[in-house]
């Protein structure tokens, strides 16, 4: 009898003991179980003939739940069936008037609006791929995007008509047809498309239109900044679309949830995780043109939002809003995103309640990513056997000064010790491929790292420094190379430097990012040398950066030097400049601050520096 009681007591205490010894066991098991189920689903989709794509998932939901709201936008609700019919019209209009055939690539220069999603669905029904262009890019960068993906059709919104008109002669010369999602357009060479769509048939298109689409077919081109100074078109296959869409499912989100998307749809977070993830779950999402801290929680309450997306700046802006009595009065349960600082993370939970923050690490083109599926603050993921089994990766020692992997006498890379910062690399395999960049073999090759653990092996070089602690938690440390991140956007330093040298006074420019207290990422700064006999022309430099760079890429600080320090291979050194920052009390070189109110650069004084450090100046 006593033995039975002891056994029962032991069994009753077992969960407590397991929780004490393995505090994250339940989280690990839930994550691995969900991952296994999703992996099995993807394997099934690959084997189906014809291939079952994310579009088929949308069509299935539209058939089963035709009246369910697919998206909310500016006071209007659009059902699954309504969006389905509208996308049929888009597909037929493009087929009839643009002559689109299966396999063609079409460039979209559209902001966050229903037309973006509807147009993409229409293209998918035709078996076409879509190149998602950043609506901030202009001139040379915009033209470059077409040479990457080979698109011969551009569909733009009325809001960016000026940007299109600026490069229209070059587009016409390249044989690119330009369509505008508007009723009318007086510009010769731009065809208004809205009426043609409205007059087209709503009847479904035959699946034969996309019969040649396979799991390996290119679904999208998503552009990411690189060291070339021009956007790189990451190839996103149908398989990759599915994998990204599963992030919501692996986080425990269901079809009953409501997603809030205010990130740009031309980025993988907003489109792949947000829109495609909503389709995969068969759920409703709320779309907003741009993020608004003041309207954020009101939108969430109005639409019963349960899942929000974020970048680090999103959380900081929300935490900087004035406190109100009802700020925990909402239904948000999950927050999915990346780039949130530990202190902001803690403050966010304190102010807005028990929200499960699912911090991510990954890259559009990368073959390895992490998700923090636990409640631990400050980490981007967790090591588990299942993840490592299917997506082999490791951290290797990296020389920041030389910007290269450290190798041993045999020429192989050296794994970083547990708890040590290292460069993340992911093995390139059939299950975790690296598809590279369209039309840019040189940049594709630069992201491949060979002879890592043995001669002849091949890994994807993430370009990021991470750390894994003794509990198996993964921490993002920093980026290496020429690209830094500010306000959720990647900034290519070579592009910034090229623009700066278009000013009549600047001879050379070395752009980089520096830390600013209280801000995520790194803000733009540049060290420059002046042409002989020239002085720094504040207004001209301001004019160049404003005319040719998006706001997030404009160097906030400029440091004038007598000469730029170079490496033995004539690369501009950045490490020391980054470390020195922009404190005028420590730097004797003249420095300038981009003053948006005066619309010019002004000398960076200690008073301005103090105001920036105190958070009194908006950056």
Automatic annotation (TrEMBL):
Per the UniProt entry, the signal peptide is 1-20
Q: Which family does it belong to?
A: Belongs to the ATP-dependent AMP-binding enzyme family.
Q: One GO CC term of this entry? A: plasma membrane
> What InterPro entries does this protein's entry cite?
AMP-bd_C, AMP-bd_C_sf, AMP-binding_CS, AMP-dep_synth/lig_dom, ANL_N_sf
Domain AMP-dependent synthetase/ligase, first and last residues per copy: 60-372
Alphabetical list of PROSITE patterns matching this protein: AMP_BINDING
Q: Does the keyword Signal apply?
A: yes
Limits of the AMP-binding enzyme C-terminal domain: 496-571
Q: What is this protein called?
A: long-chain-fatty-acid--CoA ligase
Write out the catalysed reaction: a very long-chain fatty acid + ATP + CoA = a very long-chain fatty acyl-CoA + AMP + diphosphate; tetracosanoate + ATP + CoA = tetracosanoyl-CoA + AMP + diphosphate
Q: Which GO terms describe its molecular function?
A: long-chain fatty acid transmembrane transporter activity; long-chain fatty acid-CoA ligase activity; nucleotide binding
- GO BP annotations, alphabetical order: long-chain fatty acid import into cell
The broad enzyme category this protein falls into is: ligase
Q: Which organism is it from?
A: Gadus morhua (Atlantic cod)
Keywords on record: Fatty acid metabolism, Ligase, Lipid metabolism, Signal
What would be one Pfam family of this protein?
AMP-binding
- Per the UniProt entry, the Enzyme Commission number(s) are 6.2.1.3
């Amino acid at each position: 009898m006593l033995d039975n009681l002891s056994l029962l007591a032991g069994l009753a205490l077992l969960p407590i003991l397991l929780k004490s010894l393995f505090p994250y066991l339940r989280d690990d098991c839930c994550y691995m179980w969900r991952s296994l189920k999703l992996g099995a689903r993807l394997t099934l989709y690959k084997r189906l003939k014809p291939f079952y794509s994310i579009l088929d998932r949308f069509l299935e939901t539209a058939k089963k739940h035709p009246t369910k709201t697919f998206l909310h936008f500016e006071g209007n609700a659009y059902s699954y069936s309504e969006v389905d019919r509208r996308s049929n019209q888009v597909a037929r209009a493009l087929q009839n008037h643009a002559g689109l055939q299966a396999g063609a690539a079409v460039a979209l220069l559209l902001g966050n609006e229903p037309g973006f999603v509807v147009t993409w669905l229409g293209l998918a029904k035709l078996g076409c791929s879509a190149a998602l262009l950043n609506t901030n890019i202009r001139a040379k960068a915009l033209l470059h995007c077409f040479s990457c993906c080979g698109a011969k059709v551009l569909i733009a919104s009325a809001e960016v008509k000026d940007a299109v008109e600026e490069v229209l002669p070059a587009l016409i010369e390249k044989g690119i047809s330009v369509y505008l999602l508007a009723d009318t357009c007086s510009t010769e060479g731009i065809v208004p498309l809205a009426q043609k769509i409205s007059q087209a048939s709503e009847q479904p298109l035959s699946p034969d239109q996309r019969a040649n689409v396979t799991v390996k077919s290119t679904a999208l081109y998503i552009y990411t900044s690189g060291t070339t100074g021009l956007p790189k078109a990451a190839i996103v296959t149908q398989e990759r679309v599915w994998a990204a869409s599963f992030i919501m499912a692996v986080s425990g989100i269901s079809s009953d949830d409501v997603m809030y998307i205010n990130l740009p749809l031309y980025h993988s977070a907003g489109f792949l995780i947000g829109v495609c993830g909503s389709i995969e779950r068969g759920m409703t999402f709320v779309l907003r043109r741009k993020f608004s801290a003041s309207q954020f929680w009101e939108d969430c309450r109005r639409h019963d939002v349960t899942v929000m997306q974020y970048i680090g700046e999103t959380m900081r802006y929300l935490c900087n809003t004035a406190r109100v009595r009802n700020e925990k009065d909402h239904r948000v349960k999950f927050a999915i995103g990346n780039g949130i600082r530990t202190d902001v993370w803690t403050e966010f939970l304190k102010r807005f309640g028990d929200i499960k923050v699912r911090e991510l690490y990954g890259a559009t083109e990368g073959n390895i990513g992490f998700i923090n599926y636990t409640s631990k603050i400050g980490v981007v993921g967790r090591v588990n056997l299942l993840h490592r089994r299917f997506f082999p990766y490791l951290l290797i020692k990296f020389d920041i000064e030389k910007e290269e992997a450290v190798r041993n006498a045999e020429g192989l890379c050296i794994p970083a010790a547990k708890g040590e910062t290292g460069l993340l690399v992911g093995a390139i395999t059939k299950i975790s491929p690296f598809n590279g960049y369209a039309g840019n073999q040189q940049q594709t090759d630069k992201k491949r790292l060979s002879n890592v653990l043995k001669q002849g092996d091949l890994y994807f070089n993430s370009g990021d420094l991470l750390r894994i602690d003794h509990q198996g938690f993964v921490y993002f440390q920093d980026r290496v190379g020429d690209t830094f991140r500010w306000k959720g956007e990647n900034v290519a330093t070579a592009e910034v430097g090229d623009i700066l040298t278009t000013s009549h006074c600047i001879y050379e420019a070395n752009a980089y990012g520096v830390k600013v207290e209280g801000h995520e990422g790194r803000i733009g700064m540049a060290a420059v040398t002046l042409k002989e006999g020239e002085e720094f022309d504040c207004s001209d430099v301001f004019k160049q950066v404003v005319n040719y760079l998006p706001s997030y890429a404009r160097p906030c600080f400029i440091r004038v030097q007598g000469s730029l320090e170079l490496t033995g291979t004539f690369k501009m050194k950045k490490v020391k400049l980054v470390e020195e920052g922009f404190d005028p009390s420590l730097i004797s070189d003249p420095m300038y601050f981009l003053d948006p109110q005066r619309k010019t650069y002004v000398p960076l004084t200690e008073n301005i520096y103090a105001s920036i450090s105190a958070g009194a100046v908006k950056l």
